[in-house]
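Render this sequence as a predicted structure.
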Amino acid sequence: MTRTSTIGIALTFLLALITGCSDEPRQTLALNWVPEPEFGGFYAAQLNGDYEKAGLNVTIQPGGAGKPTMQMIGAGQVEFGIVSADEIIIGRARGIDVVAIFAVYQTCPQGIMAHEERGYKDLADLLTRNDPAGKLTVAMEVGLPYGKFLAEKYGLEQVKVVPYMGGVAQFLGDPWFAQQCFVFSEPITARGQGAKPQVFLIAESGYDPYTVVVAVNGKLLREKPEMVRAMRQAVAAGWKAYLDDPAPANAVMAKLNTTMDAAWFAAGAEAHRPMLESAATKEHGLGVMTVERWRALGEQLVGLGVIDTAPRAEDCFLP
C-alpha cells in the first residue's frame, strides 16, 4: 500500500468519525468553539461508539468566534449545542425554549490571568490594588454577565479595562497586562511561549455558572425524550472515557485544530480535570445539575440587572 493511499484511508476514517456514516437520521451537536480539550468527551464518545450504542448518529459541528449556538438550538437548526448556564437562563427569560441536559464543567473554568511576578494574592487583590507603578490593564468582556459581576463586586476603578481581543500576544509583551482566560487554553499557550501566568478563577469570587453545557430545543425534548436521554447517556460515557484516557480523542481534535500540538492538548486535558467533578457528580455521575444552583444563578442574573425575572429553575434543565 502506498503512503498516499494510507493517508487517504486515515482521512476517510476520520471523516466518518466526525460526520457519521449511516443512512439513519443524524443529530448535530454544534460546538461553540474550535476542537479543544473542553470538548474531549464528545469526541471520545464518537471514537468509542457511544452514540451508536445509544441509537444515535451524531455529527459534531465545530464552532468559532461568534457562533450563535443558542439561536441555532432555539430555531431548531441543530438538535444539540454547547452553551453556558447563564446563556440558557437569559435565553429562556427572552422566550427562547432551550433546556440543558448535561453540564461538563461543575466549576466554571473562566478566570483572569496576570503575570506571576506581580504577586497578586487573589482576584480581589488584582482588581483593587492601587499599584504605585501604574494601573493594571485588564482585557475582559465587561458587558457579559461575569464582567458585570466583577464590576459590581470590585468596582474596577483601580484598573484600566479594555476589550478582550483574543490570543495572548499582548499578555506576552506587557508585564502590566492581565486578561480573561480559560484554564485549559490561554495560560497553557502563554507558558509554552515562556511566560509565567497566574490564574484566578472567577468562580472563587462567587460567579460560577455551569459551563460547556449540552442543550436541546424544548420542543424536541418534549417530542423525543428518549432520544434526548440517550444523548445524555452517550455524552456521559464519552466524558468518563476521556477522563480515563484523553489521548485518543486529543489526537482526533489535534487533526481538526492544527494550531495546537499534542503537548498542548495533553496539558489542557490535565488542567481542566478537577473542574469536571464535584460532590454532586461523585454521587450522581458526570454532567449532573441541581435545581439549587440554577435557582441561585437566576437570582444572581436578576440582581446584576441582566434579566428582569428569572425563569423557573426546574424549566432550565433536564433532571
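Summary. The radius of gyration is 20 Å. Residues 226 and 232 are 10 Å apart (CA to CA).
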